[in-house]
Design brief:
With 174 residues, the protein is of the alpha+beta class. It starts with a helix and ends in a 15-residue tail after the last strand. The radius of gyration is 23 Å and the shape is elongated. It has a four-stranded antiparallel β-sheet, covered by helices on one side. Strand 2 and strand 3 form a beta hairpin.
Length: 174
């Protein structure tokens, strides 16, 4: 096989394998056992195929470079894939010094289940609005809140598990 084509095959195998491994790690953290095992197993098979091509000739610099570069690009591609898949749920917390009520009302009008609380900030009372949503919906929640109060503090946390609660019909888990 042409040496550059061989290096390209190693690179592509590595990108695919590491991308799958990145997704498998995230699936593991989210507790999606079966998908994590299947994805991780496939990534391991691809790893073995790629590493076998490299260790047979460690003095082949293009193969080594392809292997290492495939790791970096594969990690990047895996993170992009996972972000597009947006698996799981997030808690969006919005803290507003002046417009907590209005933010909660706007989110409810958009169909979100909202928990509203009140607290004390550094020098004033604050409205605290919590919303649990599928990760794919997080940008919509943030946009809605920022349209009401561009100065609101917004945090997003991963929710490892969500049971019960109010869900918009379009957000129902299947």
């Amino acid at each position: 096989m042409n040496p550059l084509l061989h290096a390209l095959v190693i690179f592509v195998l590595r990108v695919i394998g590491i991308s799958l491994s990145t997704v498998a790690t995230i699936l593991t953290v989210q507790g999606r056992k079966l998908l994590a095992v299947l994805t991780g197993s496939l990534s391991t098979l691809i790893y073995v195929l790629a590493i076998a091509q490299v260790v047979t000739n460690l003095s082949n610099i293009p193969n080594l470079v392809a292997y290492v570069a495939g790791f970096g690009v594969g990690t990047w591609v895996g993170m992009i894939l996972e972000a597009r898949m947006a698996l799981g749920f997030s808690e969006v917390r919005i803290i507003s010094t002046k417009q907590g009520e209005e933010i909660a009302a706007a989110l409810r009008a958009a169909g979100f289940g909202v928990t509203q609380m009140y607290g004390r900030g550094h020098s004033s009372s604050v409205g605290i609005v919590d919303v649990f949503v599928p990760r794919k919906i997080v940008p919509q929640v943030i946009r809605t809140a920022e349209e009401v109060d561009p100065q609101a503090i917004v945090t997003v946390s991963e929710a490892r598990m969500v049971q019960r609660g109010y869900w918009r019909p379009s957000d129902q888990r299947k």
